């Protein structure tokens, strides 16, 4: 009840079952041991889909009295604020800390390494600042260390190499800098490594090669890494996701990538990579992004075309020269994002766009696409369309009003623009479009 008193707002009534005088083991989020009715875990979670399912308030230190607590879970409650809860150091049986997607701030305590029984420490999605304390190396039982999406700075402490039981290391979305430490030969069971969206520089360390047997997710995107993509990545037979996007990698993609038969998500966009791109032997790809390198693919790769399930295809500025009508992918139904902008693609997008049920966005600007705009059908999920700088003709259909973003500038469209919320820049440079937001139509 002391904890409940620290919560100032509970609009969705997550704590409404917490009534004095009733059995606390029946309260939402409270778990007890069956025999002695001791509280062993507190699990309170908001629903990200429901804007009302959050708390406002602070975490009461009165919870330090629950000596049998082994799990403390505060997930997606948004407005829980204050520092790292110091009372957690007084709980002798604590094994799991998940305080995710709240607004805790300040530094991670220097003595965090004293929580030696911890199996999981997840502080993802808060506002923690400062460096990772070197004492974190004392948490030798940890299987998961998740500190992503905070405002942490400095370099990764070398003491993390002592956490030999780690299966999951997530530091993405911070402001870490310097080189990625070359200490990965310590981690024989690591399956997930997420370091994206930081300021890491230098090369991919050689010791990452020792993770090949078990690593499923390697995410290094949006840093300042450079050099060649190492050939050893082709040995990662278990790899599901590889993200090296938005770095400064140069040279060719290793031919050994043909061995990545289990990869579902490959993102190499926004680097300095050159031809040739290797032929892959994937069974199916879910998302592929090769945009904004120096490739000259000519065609959409055969291994993409034959994929039985694909959600996202982004090949912007990849040197593709083809007629879109001639492209016959094995499956189009599940596409949600297609970006083919900045190529030399001709023909019509009607067949492709109209055969997708889940399409959210289609980007085809800067090509030679030529078709009647009114023939496009927009599904319920369709939100983004960019056909600027093409040869599209006909009228603007009323159905575009349901989109969130639209750009059909510099085509051959004509007639009165239906009522929409889009600015003039979405329609300029056409043959004879008129009406708001452009000049009024001339009356006959």
From TrEMBL:
Intracellular or extracellular location(s): Cell envelope; Membrane
Domain Leucine-rich repeat-containing N-terminal plant-type span(s) in chain numbering: 2-32
InterPro entries given in the database record: Leu-rich_rpt (IPR001611), Leu-rich_rpt_typical-subtyp (IPR003591), LRR_dom_sf (IPR032675), LRR_N_plant-typ (IPR013210), PGIP (IPR051848)
Family designation: Belongs to the polygalacturonase-inhibiting protein family.
Keywords associated with the record: Leucine-rich repeat, Membrane, Repeat, Transmembrane, Transmembrane helix
Protein name: Leucine-rich repeat-containing N-terminal plant-type domain-containing protein
Gene Ontology terms: cellular component: membrane
Pfam families named in the record: LRR_1, LRR_8, LRRNT_2
Membrane-topology annotation of the record: Single-pass membrane protein
């Amino acid at each position: 009840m002391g904890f409940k008193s620290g919560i100032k707002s509970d609009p969705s009534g997550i704590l409404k079952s917490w009534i004095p005088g009733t059995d606390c083991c029946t309260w939402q989020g409270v778990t007890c041991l069956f025999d002695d009715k001791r509280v062993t875990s507190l699990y309170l979670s908001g629903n990200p889909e429901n804007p009302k399912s959050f708390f406002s308030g602070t975490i009461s230190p009165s919870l330090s009295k629950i000596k049998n607590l082994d799990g403390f879970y505060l997930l997606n409650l948004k407005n829980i604020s204050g520092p790292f809860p110091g009372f957690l150091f007084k709980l002798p049986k604590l094994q799991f800390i998940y305080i995710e997607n709240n607004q805790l701030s300040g530094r991670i305590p220097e003595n965090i390494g004293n929580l030696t029984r911890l199996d999981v420490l997840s502080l993802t999605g808060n506002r923690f600042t400062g460096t990772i304390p070197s004492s974190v190396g004392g948490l030798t039982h940890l299987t998961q260390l998740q500190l992503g999406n905070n405002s942490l700075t400095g370099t990764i402490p070398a003491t993390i190499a002592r956490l030999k039981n780690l299966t999951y290391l997530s530091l993405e979305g911070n402001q870490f800098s310097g080189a990625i430490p070359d200490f990965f030969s310590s981690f024989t069971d690591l399956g997930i490594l997420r370091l994206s969206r930081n300021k890491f520089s230098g090369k991919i360390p050689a010791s990452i090669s020792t993770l090949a047997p078990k690593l499923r997710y390697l995410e290094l995107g949006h840093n300042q890494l450079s050099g060649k993509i190492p050939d050893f990545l082709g040995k990662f037979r278990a790899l599901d996701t590889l993200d090296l996007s938005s770095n400064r990698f140069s040279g060719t993609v290793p031919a050994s990538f043909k061995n990545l038969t289990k990869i579902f998500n490959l993102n190499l966009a926004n680097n300095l990579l050159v031809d040739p791109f290797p032929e892959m032997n994937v069974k199916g790809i879910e998302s592929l992004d090769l945009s904004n390198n120096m490739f000259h693919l000519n065609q959409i790769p055969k291994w993409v075309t034959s994929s039985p399930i694909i959600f996202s295809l982004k090949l912007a500025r990849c040197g593709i020269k083809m007629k879109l009508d001639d492209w016959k992918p094995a499956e189009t139904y599940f596409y949600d994002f297609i970006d083919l902008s900045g190529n030399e693609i001709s023909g019509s997008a009607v067949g492709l766009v109209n055969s997708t049920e889940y399409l959210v966005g289609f980007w085809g600007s800067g090509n030679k696409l030529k078709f009647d705009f009114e023939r496009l059908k927009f599904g319920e999920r369709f939100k983004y369309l960019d056909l600027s700088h093409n040869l599209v003709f006909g009228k603007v259909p009323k159905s575009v009003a349901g989109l969130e973003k639209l750009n059909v500038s510099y085509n051959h469209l004509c007639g009165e623009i239906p009522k929409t919320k889009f600015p003039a820049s979405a329609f300029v440079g056409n043959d004879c479009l008129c009406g708001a937001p452009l000049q009024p139509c001339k009356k006959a």
